[in-house]
Amino acid sequence: MYRYDSYDQAMVDARVEEFRDQARRRLEGKLTEDQFKPLRLMNGLYLQLHAYMLRVAIPYGTLNSVQLEKLADIADKYDRGYGHFTTRQNIQYNWIRLEDAADILAELATVEMHAIQTSGNCIRNISADHFAGAAADEVVDPRPYAELMRQWSSFHPEFTYLPRKFKIAVIASEKDRAAMRLHDIGVRIVKRGEEIGAEFYAGGGMGRTPMIAPLIRDFVPIDQFITYAEACLRVYNRYGRRDNKYKARIKILVHELGAAEYIRQVEEEFAHLLSVGVEPPREELARIAAHFTPPPFLSSPSAGSGQAADILSSVETPSLSTMLEANGGQGSVFGQWVRRNTHAHKAPGYVSAVISLKPAGGIPGDATAEQMRVVARLAREYSFDELRVMHTQNLLLPHVRIADLHAVWTALDEAGLGAPNMDTIEDIIACPGLDYCSLANARSIPLAQRISERFAETGRTEVVGELKLKISGCINACGHHHAGHIGILGVDKKGVENYQLSLGGSEAEDVSLAKITGPGFDEDGVIAAVEKVTDVYLAARTEGERFLDTYRRIGMEPFKEVLYG
């Protein structure tokens, strides 16, 4: 993973001291809240319903055990003993005192972390495929390119005050595990023959006007891809709607101009920028890439292929077969965890292991300080001291030997982190909602807790299989409800919390936006509605068909008939 050089460290340290002075002046009454607000937002500090919230950047979701232990220490020392992992692969603390904020940033700086550009109208934390550097299907590790984009975008003088916040995702496989086309800019690293390049999408996003990003260019040579990104941003910065925050995102600009006209202007800007030379030198990309050398994987002829999706059906690995037999077989909780929560790795004998932060009845994305320390220890002992934050609000050990899986799962299970529910209806994405957020209209967390409990208690999770449920407490869609196989949006209906149900969304390579079923429900009603929707699916599905596949085949009407009669 990338490590700071002296320049990186000096930059972060200077920002901490700058903010310390700003916070002091606010506390002394020398800055009003209106004056202080843009300054704190530049450092990831929000003022929510009950307290300040601090959002810490975890670039493309990669961190090591020392960093996670520091996050745990901060949770204990400055918060209420836990942190909340987000859909942008960051972590948030919900109970921060302004008096402590600069000290927290100073502690983060000691482990090469910060909260810069986690809020405000700038280029936010660059996200990436959480399996980057480990996935068996990737063309290359996309993280060096994400890191180059991070360095290019940090404090970029032209893009510090954009019309609105701006989000970029980078992937390097056909399978999209980062909701790439629902970003302002989505980049897929591709190969054309032996040449590496970038496929660009622009104009995606969720919120009150969800849109899927169109393809802008199918191949940009890799030594020009920062220049092309800059061209995309320049056109947006020039013409984005600053007069109306609801129409200020790039998706509105691309929609109003039309993709063809936006492309024409970007290509014109791109040609100009190529003539003035804004691309970082190739040596800089090579310097960054050197930080992402694969770890020294062990090679064993009996280690198995590492194809996690088939690992229980083929049982090619003698050690795994014996392990399963000794621990309850394929139907045991451990067997289910291996089947659901491990992912194919590029190195034989290894898998990536998902750590669920979604226990039945739990708060999606929350982890206690002690749980963070357990994960940090496992990363050190079993995953080459590397771990990831997933955009699904889970954690990941990217490089685990198949032979170590039971030891890893046992430790996770003892810490309340061993739930075998990846990509099931219990693996809910949910925003903080009205429990914390001043923008929310309805609560998300209690609803997520009740749904996961209901399906766990009835045993329907296993029967239903893959079903991605996402909940947002307001139209800003921080819970990605537009992209849920089932999406729930909380709205205010004459002072009462009401929940709209949507079906058919996907954030993967088969990207689609969910459609509203009809009138909303109260909390009890929407839980019953989710159950009814799964009843329709179970009655209509063909063998091996996911919920999303069934919905696309039979359409909305059978679901509406059951929901509304």
Keywords, separated by commas or semicolons:
single chain; about 575 residues; alpha+beta; 5-stranded antiparallel beta sheet; 20 strands; about 40% helix; globular
Overall geometry comes to globular
Q: Which structural class should the secondary elements be placed in?
A: alpha+beta
Overall mean pLDDT score? 95
**CA gyration radius, whole angstroms:** 23 Å
Task: Tell me the helix content.
Answer: 25-40%
Percentage of β-strand residues = 15-25%
Biggest β-sheet: count, sense, barrel?
5 strands, antiparallel
Low-confidence stretches: 301-318
Q: How many DSSP-defined strands?
A: 20
- Distance between the first and last residues' Cα: 55 Å
Oligomeric nature of the chains: single chain
The strand line-up of the biggest sheet is 1-2-5-4-13
Q: Number of helix segments?
A: 19
